[in-house]
Write a structure and sequence with these properties.
Number of domains: 2
Order of helices and strands: EHEHEHEHEHEHHEHEHHEHHEHH
Helix content: 40-55%
Distance between the termini: 46 Å
CATH topology of the largest domain: Rossmann fold
Largest sheet: 6 strands, mixed
Strand order of the largest sheet: 1-2-10-7-8-9
Structural class: alpha/beta
Number of helices: 14
Length: 331
């Protein structure tokens, strides 16, 4: 099974696929107990490259192949780079990714490099990278596969289809991290097309990278949640329209709140996501909710091993004897 079971609702044939989609919808009993809501986790980290980006990339790269593109390119904080590189490799296309120098998580960089993409470290931020690649594709026969590509949005909307099928109906509210704002736009489109019953869409940005909360671009966005470290979202206007039409809201959460939710998910629910993913749960814990709630976890925790090691307890050294092991384990 894959998201291509919804192919009658998608604009291209599955020319390039890694069997993405059909990710777990996991009940969260401890979060439910703590918040008083019925909480579910849509774990997009179970996609082939470990993030929700694969949903859009399979459709965007399939479209690129159909249109005869010779290469694909993207600007990225990491997850789009990993996904674009993988699907370019699968399609036999050249792949190039532009990332902010020194601001990409180790796991994501490793993926892009191993998929043999040309990785360019720009001495600038994501917003500058996206501006440059948009100019580049105007001059060369390269397919841009950022979320400004409509095929990306069409692929990502299938997550909403899966949630409706899994629950039997749309939830009362959807909590979701917001970076470049393509994903919340996709979910809105998916609910609108599939159920015509749109839940309240509640988006969360990090305090240091919250342009949609403040109503203005952030020149130098900063947050531990690197996947949403974006100061001028390409889909910002559409995201705000989606939020308004669903009677939802967009709010900010602090890095401390994001990291607390990140640790809680791993230690209490057994779900290991990357820090940016935990912004949705941080928002739930901070602002609360009622009824049936789905929190979107956009990427796997292994995307950013450095963040995990910084937050986890230390490894305990031990001598190779039963007594020593017993003391450490049982003490």
């Amino acid at each position: 099974m894959s998201l291509w079971r919804y192919r009658d609702r998608l604009p291209v044939e599955p020319l390039v696929t890694l069997n993405e989609g059909d990710t777990p919808l996991i009940p969260a009993p401890r979060l439910s107990e703590r918040t008083g809501a019925e909480v579910w986790l849509k774990f997009e980290g179970a996609n082939p490259t470990g993030s929700f980006k694969d949903r859009g990339m399979t459709v965007a790269v399939s479209a690129a192949v159909r249109e005869g593109a010779q290469a694909v390119i993207c600007a990225s904080t990491g997850n789009t780079a990993a996904s674009a590189a993988a699907y370019a490799a699968r399609a036999g296309l050249r792949g190039a990714v532009i990332v902010p120098e020194g601001n990409i998580a180790t796991g994501k960089l490793a993926q892009a490099l191993m998929h043999d993409a040309r990785v360019v470290a720009l001495r600038g931020n994501f917003d500058e990278a996206l501006r440059l690649v948009r100019e580049l594709v105007e001059r060369h026969p390269i397919s841009l596969v950022n979320s400004v590509n409509e095929f990306r949005i069409d692929g990502q909307k299938t997550a909403a289809f899966e949630v409706c099928d899994g629950l039997g109906e749309a939830p009362d509210a959807l909590f979701i991290p917001v970076g470049n704002a393509g994903n919340i736009t996709s979910w809105h489109r998916g609910f609108e097309e599939y159920e015509d019953a749109i839940p309240r869409l509640l988006g969360f940005q990090a305090e240091g990278a919250a342009p949609l909360v403040h109503g203005r671009a952030v020149a130098r966005p900063e947050t531990v949640a690197s996947a949403i470290r974006i100061g001028n979202p390409a889909r910002g206007e559409e995201a705000m329209e989606a939020i308004a039409s669903s009677r939802g809201s967009i709010r900010a959460v602090s890095d401390q709140e994001i990291l607390a939710a990140y640790r809680l998910l791993a230690a209490k629910e057994g779900v290991f996501c990357e820090p940016a993913s935990a912004a949705s749960v941080a928002g739930l814990l901070k602002y609360g909710a009622e009824g049936r709630v789905v929190c979107v976890l956009t990427g796997h925790g292994l995307k950013d091993p450095t963040a995990a090691l910084d937050q986890a307890r230390s490894v305990i050294p031990c001598e190779p004897s039963l007594a020593a092991v017993e003391e450490v384990v049982m003490g």
